[in-house]
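Objective 1b of the project was to move from sequence-level analysis to a structural picture of ligand recognition. The entry below was assembled by the postdoctoral researcher (A.K.) and checked by the PI before modelling. It contains the amino acid sequence of the target and the SMILES of the bound compound, zinc ion.
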Amino acid sequence: MFSFSSKTERNAELRQDPITGKWVIISPQRAERPQEFDTRPRRIRHGPCPFCPGNEELTPPATLIKPNVSASPQEPSWKVRVVPNKYPALVDSEDCAIESGIYRGRTGLGVHEVLIETPRHVQGISDLTREEMLDVLEVLMSRLAALKSREHLRYVMVFKNVGPLAGASVEHTHSQIIATPVIPPTIEAELAGTGEFFRGHQSCIYCQIVQYEIAKAVRTVQITPHFLAMCPFAARFPYETWILPRQHNARFSDLERGLWGELIQITKDLIQRIEQTIPGVGYNVILHDAPLHDDVPFYHWHIEILPSTARPAGFEWGSGVHINSVFPEFAARSLREGQAS
Ligand SMILES: [Zn+2]
Ligand SMILES: [Zn+2]
Ligand SMILES: [Zn+2]
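Corresponding predicted holo structure:
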């Protein structure tokens, strides 16, 4: 199974470290991306934008389109497009276990899609209108439902990279969806932690965090009727911020439609606060959701926002311990004092 061949004819593989149990994706297709292995400071590439209207042939055919039904002939015919990633980390192939002596892996089965959030060539969440974000949320919910119907997929990670330091290789605002046949290690760790707390306390640790932080008001950034934005007690990165639903809810797709607008507003506000506090900063937005099929009532979905102020270095990679140069209490106060829209 582990025979070597040229990168283009070899499909991606998921491999498990036999010592730590952590999964990695070996994906030769990714190496064909523009700028891969270019060790100079990352810059957004130039040339025609593959996500702008009129350039649809530069992406693979769309999986899902939200049409702009009232568009005039001069306007783009779509509001949101979901397309397969041209350089996928995983491919929709046959799922098959790989065993070789002490090593375990599986074929790199999965789905890697790009959600183009608007036909307008803008760069981030603060450039999107509330209506555009509502369209994005609607399309995202429908992709999550479609991926959930695929039994061999166990997890869907939704994330957004804004700015070259955050890993964005295309400027035009977009999110990515990666569905995997395994549960990622970060989520496994959160499931283990929430499950253990639930067994010991008959309550959810995230719910306890929400109550404690609102009562203390030291690391809170913004509180709305149904959501809390806060800097976590053990923030790994400067200005790391989480958005949590205040009411217990394991699964993001169970979020009622009536609360979408409120979630969009607190997210836009938070990004604006971050951009005011650290001008020009990029960021990653990551949705942490329950696995697709597992019954995990003790889990509590949330969004993590990680401004790209610094990259992990030797000690972080070597030890798994992050060194954060900004106290989350200070970060929260600065973000609170920054203006929201
Ligand atoms: Zn564009
Ligand atoms: Zn909870
Ligand atoms: Zn998380």
